[in-house]
Every structure is written in C-alpha cells, then in structure tokens.
C-alpha cells in the first residue's frame, strides 16, 4: 500500500539518491528531481527505485528558479494526484576564505541552498494546503549551519543556518494545516557534496593549487584527503561507527516523512555522530598543516 508521493530534489546522486531509495523502500512513490545536466544519472536512480515496487518519475528543474519549481510541482500533481512529502535536498558546496569570497559566489550559494529550499517549501505548502490532508516538508541544512566547524566555509555555513531559521518560521505557520516542517543537518558523509567541500577548503587555505579545480590528478589527492578527514572524524566521534554514511541521513529523513513523526516540527536534526559535542580546534589545525 502506497504511503503517498514524495518529491526529492537533487536526487541524482549522494544523499539525495539515498533518500529517494529509502523512501521508496518505505512505500512512497517518488518524484526525482535534478538539473537537466544530471538526467542520465537521474534515470539510473529511477531504474533502482522502480525495483522496490513503487511508481517513480523524473522531473528536470532548477530549484532556484521559481517558475521551474512551480511547473515541477504541477507536473508531479498531474502524474501522481498530489504531494505528501517534499524533501528539499538540492544544494551546492562552496568553500573560500571569508575575505576572498566573491559576492557572486555568495549569491549563487544562497540561490540554491536557501532560495531553492524556500521555493520548494513554499510551493509544496501551497499544494498541501489545497489538498487538505497535511503533509511533510523537509529541508537540507548542514553541520556548518549549526556550529561553524571548518574554516573557509562562510557562505555554505550561512546558507545552512538560514535554512534552519526558514524551517522554524515555516513550521509555525503551517502547523495549523497539519503540515510538519523539519530540516536535517548532517556532517560530511561519504557523498559527492562533502568531497567537493573538502577540496574547496584545501584550495582556499593553500593546500591545493587553484588549478586543481580542473586537474584530474586532484582525484588521487582527494581520495587521500578524504581518507585523512575520515580518520580525524573517527578519532573525534564518540560513537564507534566513526564516519557517517549516506543512509544515516536518509533514515532520519524517512522517519521525518513518516506518519509516526506527526508530533515533530520546527526541528533541525543533527546527524553528526556527536561531533558537535567535541572541540574542533585540533581538527582545524590538522586541516591547515
């Protein structure tokens, strides 16, 4: 029996893909979204989702474009008959020293990570209110939006913090319609977004040369950099599991999307293995050496 229909933005890879698969295993029909450039990857995710026995379709849209978000939601409603869950997962990484951050990069980061979440929240809410049966709205924040733990991630952290405030404000207004609004704030997990942030941080503080942004050899460096970061997190994490996995995030999102989470709203759930309880000074020094 179907649990309803869920939209997952930014679901061509990484955490978004894991969320889509987890929701499908929990009985949700899934509307996959990503940029047109990611269509081939998104089609591969679709093939995996349908194997779980639910309905699934893909929708190309830029979440920072309001008209495209509206068109996506209208298309999902036309295809599935309604929306029960919106997971505004799409986001972009950006790391640069604070004083070197161009305004254009700041604007782009906020356009996707904050404006995109706002637009998905807004138009999903409009549809859910019209349906009159409540719903679940869930957005992506990040550990950097809860506590600044890495250098050179000002724009990314500020956009994640803005999502937390947006989530709480939306929850206050939408509760009367039986719509819960929550966010999830993971630490770096084994996903493409985290890898890109690590690379950007290392470039910004001088460990990697600027040309490494387009140099294929960076993949070798990134593997070892990520491995070192993983050992650092394992060493600081109170839990024996150490580094987080994509499905650690996806499982939390699946619970927030469930009927059992009916009394949880306005929350930003941290998924970091307890790292925010530790001191990050030592870790930051290690990154900068």
Automatic annotation (TrEMBL):
One of its GO terms (biological process) is fatty acid biosynthetic process. GO terms for molecular function: oxidoreductase activity, acting on the CH-OH group of donors, NAD or NADP as acceptor; quinone binding. InterPro entries: NAD(P)-bd_dom_sf, SDR_fam. Gene3D superfamilies: NAD(P)-binding Rossmann-like Domain (3.40.50.720). Belongs to the short-chain dehydrogenases/reductases (SDR) family. This is NAD(P)-binding protein. The lineage of its organism: Eukaryota, Fungi, Dikarya, Basidiomycota, Agaricomycotina.
């Amino acid at each position: 029996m179907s649990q309803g229909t869920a939209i997952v933005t930014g679901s061509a890879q990484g955490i978004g893909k894991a969320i889509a698969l987890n929701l499908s295993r929990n009985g949700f029909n899934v509307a996959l979204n990503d940029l047109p450039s990611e269509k081939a990857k998104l089609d591969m995710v679709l093939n995996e989702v349908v194997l779980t026995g639910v309905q699934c379709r893909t929708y190309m849209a830029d979440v920072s474009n309001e008209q495209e978000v509206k068109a996506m939601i209208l298309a999902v409603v036309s295809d599935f008959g309604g929306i029960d869950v919106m997971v505004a997962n799409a986001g972009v990484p950006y790391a640069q020293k604070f004083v070197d951050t161009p305004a254009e990069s700041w604007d782009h980061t906020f356009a996707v990570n904050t404006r995109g979440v706002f637009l998905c929240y807004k138009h999903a809410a409009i549809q859910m209110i019209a349906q009159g049966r409540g719903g679940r709205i869930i957005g992506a924040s990040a550990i950097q939006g809860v506590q600044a733990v890495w250098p050179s991630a000002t724009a990314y952290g500020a956009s994640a913090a803005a999502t937390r405030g947006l989530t709480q404000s939306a929850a206050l207004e939408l509760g009367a319609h039986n719509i819960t609004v929550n966010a999830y704030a993971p630490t770096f997990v084994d996903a493409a977004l985290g890898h890109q942030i690590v690379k950007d941080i290392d470039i910004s503080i001088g460990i990697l040369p600027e040309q490494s942004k387009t140099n294929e050899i960076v993949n070798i460096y990134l593997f070892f950099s990520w491995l070192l970061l993983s050992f650092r997190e394992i060493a600081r994490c109170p839990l024996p599991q150490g580094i987080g996995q994509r499905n650690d995030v996806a499982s939390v999102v699946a619970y927030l999307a469930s009927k059992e989470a009916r009394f949880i709203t306005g929350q930003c759930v941290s998924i970091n293995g307890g790292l925010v309880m530790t001191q990050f000074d030592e870790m930051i020094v290690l990154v900068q050496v």
